[in-house]
Amino acid sequence: MKPDVRLVVSDLDGTLLNHEGVVTPYTARVIAALRDKGVAFAACTGRFPENAAAALAGSGIACPIISLNGAVVELSPLKDRIFEQTMALRAAMEIFLVLEQLGEGYHIFAPGKVVSRRRTHLHHSELGREKDHPLTRSVRYAYGEEACRQAAGEPLYKYYVYFTPESQPPEAIRAALGGIAGAALTQSSESNFELISDKTDKGTGLRILAERLGVEPAHIMAVGDQLNDLPMIRYAGLGVAMGNASDTVRQAAAWVTGNNREDGAAKAIERFCL
Question: What is the β-pairing status of strands 158-162 and 105-110?
Fold first, then answer.
């Protein structure tokens, strides 16, 4: 007998999106069938709100979006915001100073703004098909040390620290950043660290959305692949790991589905919900 799932929440990159960063037609049809059945669907991602909405819009998916690893929760794309959590200013500035001392590259995500430390490493929302998407045109971009310093002194949601061949060892970066009061460190891939307020994560964002929708954890299925997905997978009654998930996520999940090259998220929805 299938579980009584009333809300499905899925990560985007490495999960709902395939290796080309898009929702396949098959996955879009499965989500449509899920919603026709009366089961709610939501996205939960590290992407900023405009970028997350753009990633789904091409497939006709308009759903609640938990973005920035739980820092923002909206009931529909870029509308009906029910939760927002910025980082403590002291923590944000301390992270900036540590990253500058380490010489690492990073992006800062703030309300309506993306700030990149290096012009040689632009955020993916400035590149390719996402560059001119109508949903991201309102986002402002800035670059360089002084722009980052200014952003660190204002409300911001997240730091994204990317690794390059010139980076310090990940263990050294983690040691330098991991003990900053007011900030929490996680990863969305093996090549980055992400820092957000220690008052939220994907599990917190999911809880806030589920409470608004009136859905208990036992009736939630969460699908993800990376360490930043662990809080939502642990919160949900049914946690599903992608076939391409990290070992830690696979061990925490109740089920392991196919990878994102073979519509693993959609296949999990079909198995447990349709």
Answer: antiparallel
Name, in order, each residue with C-beta under 8 angstroms of 128's C-beta and a sequence gap of 6 or more: none
Count how many Cα atoms sit within 13 Å of the Cα of residue 77 in the half-sphere of its side chain: 18
Residue 140 three-state SS:
strand
Token pair listed for 237: 């009654």
Phi first, then psi, for residue 185 (nearest 5°) are -105, 135
Return the amino acid letter for 258: G
Q: Is the CA virtual torsion 130, 195, 233, 251 positive or negative?
A: positive
Reported as a single tens digit per residue, the pLDDT across 82-102 is: 999 999 999 999 999 999 999
pLDDT of residue 255: 97
In three-state secondary structure terms, 160 is strand
Distances (CA, A) of 38 to 25, 65, 177: 20, 18, 43
d(CA 224, CA 119): 31
